[in-house]
Amino acid sequence: MKPTLIRVLCLAALSMILLQDVSAQRGRVYHPRSGYGYAPHRGARVSFNFFAGPRTVYPYRGVNYHYYGGYYYRPYGSYLRVVAPPIGISINVLPRGYRNIYAGGAPYYYYGGTYYRQGSKKDTYDVVDAPMGASVPELPEDAKVVVINGQKLYELDGTYYKEDIRDNSEIWYTVVGKDGKVNTDDGSIDDQPEDNGPQIGDIVDKLPSDCRTVVVNGQKYFVSPDDIYYEEVVGKNTISYKIVGK
């Protein structure tokens, strides 16, 4: 290979790395698997000047959620944080590139890990819980690989997905569990065995004593002395903590 060509390839690779690094600093990461291109990751902190265009504010249970490009942002003081939308919030326009899917014979709309159904009011769409058995062709990069009883699954916002290889060799992802309970073709797998202590997906009202605070990719977590990671969950007049890692 000629030296000039090598230099060109090296510069191209460096440019791609720098581009991805800048995007990550702005709260966006490139999602090659998901098909969403540049998309914000859960927990990313952004300023109010982050958005390239107008955004819509949807008040829900006392919180003004900022909606932009199919993703939701919650105010935290002087900045916004990318969050999973609360179940029940309604929007007026579905995000560009949404998918039409069916589960249990009922129609749903899917985008970026979020499921919608037609709202009770005209031209509204309600965020709903992931329907069991729903299959989608892509997941956001936020989905974490987990292994339960020797089986590889993906977890996102407490929902578990199993890879489903279609006849045309495409990989889809089917909802097989929620809230720590997983159903598979081999029967039911309980991801919360009583004799194994706290499990990922558990939500508790109080943190264990002597927890320390850490920040990972801009997201604050509380870590117990036995290395269990908790994420703060703010509800209506309540604060709880969800186990997100062990």
Q: Helical region count?
A: 1
Terminal-residue CA separation: 47 Å
Tell me the strand percentage band: over 45%
Sheet with most strands: 7 strands, antiparallel
Envelope shape: globular
Query: In sequence order, what are the helices and strands, one letter per element?
Result: HEEEEEEEEEEEEEEEEEEEEEEEE
Query: What's the gyration radius in Å?
Result: 20 Å
User: How does the helix and strand content classify structurally?
Assistant: mainly beta
Helix content: under 10%
**Which runs of at least 5 residues are low in confidence (pLDDT < 50)?**
8-37, 191-195
Annotation, overall tally of beta strands: 24
Rounded mean pLDDT score: 80
Pfam family, one: DUF6515
Signal peptide: 1-24
Organism: Terrimonas ginsenosidimutans
Protein name: DUF6515 family protein
